[in-house]
Amino acid sequence: MLTIMGKIPSINVRKVLWTCRLLDLPFELEPWGAGFRDPNVPEFLALNPNAQVPVLRDGDTVLWESNTICRYLAHDTFLLPADRLQRARIEQWMDWQATELNNAWRPAFMALMRGSTKYGPDEIAAGARDWNAKMALLDAHLDRTGAYAAGDAFSLADVVLGVSANRWRMTPIDHADLPAVAAYLKRLARMPGYAEYCGEGTP
C-alpha cells in the first residue's frame, strides 16, 4: 500500500490524495506537518531534505514534490495518458499552477486564511489583484475549451488546478467575475473525491 506523509489541510497533500481517490489507489495517510509530527527531524529529512509535505513511499520508492508524485501515480492512466502531445498539454497547466498561480495566491491567502503577519496591507492588496489576474487567464482558457484545462476530458491538470481554484473561491478577497471558472468548479464537483479534497471547507 502507498504511504503518503502529510496532512489534509495542505493543498499539496490534497492534490495527491485526490489523485489516489480518482485512480482507486489504496493509501495510508501518515500525519506530518505543522500541527502534527514535525518534519524537521532526521527520520523525515532522510526522505525529503526540504522538510516539506507530502512525501510518498511506494515500497522502496520515495518521492517528494506534489506534482511529481501526482505524475508518478497517474502515469499512463486517463488522468495522464502516454500520448506525447496530450501529456504535454496537461503538464503545461500543472507547471503553470505550481510556478505562476501558487506565487500569486501566497500573500493574500497566507495573511487572510493562515494569519501570517509577513505581508502588509499593500502587499495583500497587490497579491489579490495578481491572483485575480491569473485566475482571469484561466477563466479565458476554460471559456475557449468549454470544459477542462487540457480540452474535453478531465485530467491531472484539473486536479491541481481544481484545488487552487477552490482556494481562490474560499479566500475572502474581492473576487473577479469569472463565469468559466464558476462553471468549471461545478463540473469538478461531480468527480469522485472532490468533496473530501477540493470542496467547501478545504481552502
UniProtKB/TrEMBL annotation:
Database matches in InterPro entries: Glutathione-S-Trfase_C-like, Glutathione-S-Trfase_C_sf, Glutathione_S-Trfase, Glutathione_S-Trfase_N, Thioredoxin-like_sf
| Listed Pfam families | GST_C_2, GST_N_2
List, alphabetically, the PROSITE patterns matched: GST_CTER (PS50405), GST_NTER (PS50404)
Transmembrane portions of the chain:
none
Keyword Transferase: yes or no? yes
Under the heading CDD domains, the entry gives: GST_N_2
Q: Where is the GST C-terminal domain?
A: 83-203
Keywords of this entry? Transferase
Extract one GO molecular function annotation from the record. Answer: transferase activity
Q: Which residues form the GST N-terminal domain?
A: 1-81
Q: Which PANTHER family match?
A: DISULFIDE-BOND OXIDOREDUCTASE YFCG, GLUTATHIONE S-TRANSFERASE-RELATED
The family note in this entry says: Belongs to the GST superfamily.
UniProt name for this protein: Glutathione S-transferase
